[in-house]
Amino acid sequence: MPGRRAGRPGEPRPARAGPRHDLRDRPGVRAEGDRRGHGLSAPARSRHPAVGVREQRRDRPQPGDRGGDPGLGPGIPVRRRGRRLRRPRHRIGRSVDHPAALARGVPPDPGRVPGIREHDPGRTVIRAEREPATRRLALIGAALLAAATLALGAAVAGPADAATAAVSAGKPDKPGKPPGGGGGGSGGGGTTELEYAAVGDSFAAGTGARPYLDTACNRSSLGYPKLLDADANLRLTAFPACTGASTTTVISSQVPAIPTTAKRVTLTAVGNDVGFSTVMQNCFVIVITSSCQSSLATAETLIANGTVAANVAAVVQAIRARAPEAKVVVAGYPLLFNEPSGYTWAARVNVDTAALNDAVAAAAAANGAVFVDVEAAFAGHGIGSRNAWINDWSWLDTTIGFHPNATGYAAYATEIRKVIG
C-alpha cells in the first residue's frame, strides 16, 4: 500500500540509527514521511538523518501537548488547527575528543578540523564555532591605534643633536681609484679618495627618501651625501646633517664633527632660519590664513634685510676655519610646487624660495664657496606634476612631506658632481 514501509510480513523491524524521539511506533500516530507518501524504510532513514528530523513533525497530537481527545484515550492531546507543534529536543553530538566520546571507544582524530564536531549516528552535527565579532573588531581597533601612535610619534619627534646621533659615514671597504686621480691620499699606494663631509638641514640629510639610517635625524641612504660617497673619488667621513637644523645648529653641533683634513664639504641650510616647517604647516597642512600670511611675511623680511645672507656666510666661514683645505659646495633648494597648483599659497612660496636661493648664492660667492642651483633640474617635477620629485604632505608618513624623494636626491647629486671635483 503506498505510504507504508517496505518489508515482508513477520520480518523483524531493523534497529533505528537515531534516538527514539519520534512516536511513529505508537498506535494512531504516523510519521511525516508516511503522511506524505515517502515510504522510506528504516534502513533508508538511517542513511538520511535529515529525514529522521523531519519525521518528528507529526500530523497527530502527541503526549505533552495541551488539550486532549477522548477518542484517543486519556492524556493524548489534540492538535489545534493553525498551531505549530514544538520540535522535540535533540541530543547534541559531541566532539570525537570529548571524554564521553572516548568512553564510547571513539578514537580521537588528529586530522579533523578544530571546532568541527563529528557526526554520531542520529545526532546533530554542530558547525564550526566562529570567532565572536566583538573580538575581531577589538583586534582591528588595536591595529589602527598602533598605526596612529607610530604616525603621531614620528610627527612630534624633534631634531636631535647631530653629535649624539651617530651614523656610519662611508663604506669601510670602498676601493680607491688608481693613483694620480686626485689629491688627499697618503701616498705609498694608499687610497686617493677625497675626505668628504656633509652638513646642513633635512635636505642635506636626505629626509623624504626612505629607508632612513636613523630616526633621530632622518638621514637617508638615498640622500645626495650617500650617493656622492659611492663615487670613486669621494669618501664620506662625516655625515652630521640633521633634520630641523638651522645655521646656528650647524655651526655649534655639526662643524666640529668635520675632520680637519677634509677636502670637500657640502652644505644645504638656512631653510629653517626662515621658518620652513612653520610655513608648511600654516599654509599647506592645517591652513590658517592669518598664520600663513604672518609666517610668509617673516620669511620675506629675513631674506630682504640680509639676515639669510649673513647666516650662510657665518657657516661657510666656520667650515673654512675647521677644514682650511676643504672646497665648500653650497646647494640651494628646489621650487616645491608645480604651477598652476591646487594649493593657494604655492605660487608665493615658490617666489620666496627663488629669492632665498639668490641670497644664498650671493653669500656663498662672497665667501669663497661654490653655489649649486637645482631649480632648473627640478623644473616640471614639483608637487602636483605627473612625475613629482618632491613628496606632497601625507598623514601616513609625516616626515617625508615637502622634501625630495629618491629621484629628487639623485638629481641633487648629479648637479653637485658637476662642481665638486
TrEMBL record:
Residues annotated as region Disordered? 1-123, 167-192
Give the top-rank taxon of the lineage listed in the UniProt record for this protein. Answer: Bacteria
Q: Which residues form the active site?
A: 202, 403
Which GO terms are recorded in the biological process aspect for this UniProt protein? triglyceride catabolic process
Residues spanning the membrane: 137-158
Q: Which UniProt keywords apply?
A: Disulfide bond, Hydrolase, Membrane, Transmembrane, Transmembrane helix
Disulfide linkage: 217-242, 283-292
Q: Which residues form the SGNH hydrolase-type esterase domain?
A: 198-411
Q: Tell me the InterPro entries matching this sequence.
A: SEST-like (IPR037460), SGNH_hydro (IPR013830), SGNH_hydro_sf (IPR036514)
Q: Where is the composition biased (Basic residues)?
A: 78-93
Q: Which stretches does UniProt call biased (Gly residues)? A: 179-191
**Gene3D superfamilies on file:** SGNH hydrolase
- UniProt feature, compositional bias: Basic and acidic residues: 8-37, 54-68
**Gene Ontology MF terms in the entry:** triacylglycerol lipase activity
Report what the protein is called: SGNH/GDSL hydrolase family protein
The protein's organism comes out as: Agromyces mariniharenae
